[in-house]
Amino acid sequence: MDAVSSELGWTSYRTGTFDSWRGPVHTAKEDYVAEEVPVVLVYNTIPHVVMLTTPLNLEDFALGFSLTEEIIGQPSELQSVRVVQRSKGVEVRMTIPEERFEKLHGKGKNMTGRTGCGLCGATTLEQAIRRPHHVGQGLALSAGLLSGGFADMAQKQSLNLLTGAVHAAAWLHPERGIVTVREDVGRHNALDKLIGSLAKANCDFENGWLLVTSRASYEMVQKAASVGITLLAAISAPTALAIQLAEECGLTLVGFARHENHMIYTHPHRLQHYQESAA
Fold first, then answer.
1. CB 249 within 8 A of CB 135
2. CA atoms of 68 and 74, how far apart (whole Å)
3. Residues 6+ apart with CB under 8 A from 136
4. Active site: which residues (predicted)?
5. What is the pLDDT of residues 109-157, one digit of tens each?
């Protein structure tokens, strides 16, 4: 396989020639394959967790992860970020205030987070299932804007259009449509990258909506609510725990959002439908 796109020497995808079968017909076909590498998140020189991620937008990932895991309380507390290439992965070296680091150091994570894992090395039940803060009022979203947002988002998933193997998280603005998309092999990594990018731009998280191409698992609700996002719409289903957390914190949770169809699981007042708009 050949590397064709790189960031810091690592590839976001590779190309190779593979055996393709369509029924009895065999051909040798060139294909694009998404990359994933170990990324070590280091706070104040101490490794905290190793995540398997797509090696793109790693500074966004560092900030988003730090916010959604409540390691820091605001973007300015991430005092420095340095991404360092290693032979077997990437180190993201961060500096945070000493009082934040002291609380973090006692959590005892320092474990590997798999691509699809949202626990990130939690060692207690309290760490694993954090009850998110109650979200604000937010904005009402029309069903037409929601379906249009997902259609536009699909065309802006550049890595997935090549590989078909990565998740995406996107921010839908009430006036500008899809303004930011981040991709990763891990659904929660994509969300952390998006939140980090938006936080750097001083985004008002009540002034827009979150769209994701994955299922709506509990950690997606947890991460969204931690920064004040009020509506999360997912292409696939939610879990029971995701519904419970969304109900508790006041977040509108939408699942199976495909074409003009969707299911609303919690707080439906933020999603306006065609008959409601016409009334």
1. yes
2. 10
3. 206, 228, 230
4. 117
5. 545 555 555 445 555 555 567 888 899 999 999 999 999 999 999 999 9
8-state DSSP, 191: H
Cβ count near 21 (within 10 Å): 9
Q: How many residues make up the chain in this entry?
A: 279
- Which residue's structure tokens are 């169809």? 261
Mean pLDDT of 223-239: 98
Helix ranges (DSSP H) in the chain: 58-68, 98-105, 125-128, 143-155, 158-163, 187-200, 218-226, 240-249, 274-278
C-beta separation of 210 from 230 below 8 A: no
Number of CB atoms found within 10 A of residue 13's CB: 21
Three-class SS of residue 127?
A: helix
Residues 203, 171 contacting (CB under 8 angstroms): yes
Pair type for strands 2-7 and 231-234: unpaired
Per the structure block, which two tokens stand in for 23?
């029924």
Please count the helices (runs of H) and the strands (runs of E) in the chain.
Answer: 9, 16
φ, ψ for residue 129, nearest 5 deg: -115, 80
Using DSSP's 3-state secondary structure scheme, residue 66 falls into: helix
Active-site residue numbers?
117
List phi, psi (to 5°) of 24.
-85, 0
